[in-house]
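note to self: dont lose this again. the chain is below, predicted strucutre after it. 169 aa total, dont forget to put it in the shared folder this time
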Amino acid sequence: MRSEVGSKSRLVQAWRTSHRVTTYLIENLPPDLWSMTVPGAPRRTVRMVAAHLHNSRCWWIKAMGRRDGIVAPPLVDLRRVTPAALLKALSRSNAGIVRLIELGAARGGAVPRSSWQNFPTDLEHFVSYFVAHEAHHRGQLVLIARQLGHPLPKGVTNGLWQWTKLRPG
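---
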């Protein structure tokens, strides 16, 4: 039988690995791609898709953690955030997601419910939801780069799957 502490630790590690994969991609997006318009969505830029990752985390942290004293970091400006500023912001929202996992573990394995939550409150679904959300947008960013004529080097796209190497120590 697995202990709650061990289970929480594994979920935190899994989340941190997914977070690191996200930051790896942001670190490797070509700077000239950042302000380009998303094909088929003329009001969205690559920057906006990338910034959405942080802002989405913040909305959930606020909705789920506010009652328990977990403060969401500030949102980033979708139209002005730089890659360096986004990486710093993602680090702060990563810490907020970890705090929600820890809160869920302290509450017997379930995060607090948000009024508009669309997934079960157990920690396994919580972490799975956020990993899937970020993977979806990472895939979008890779595809958008290709569509805009700036395919990422094979080492970068293959690197997104090197979870053993990217897993935080």
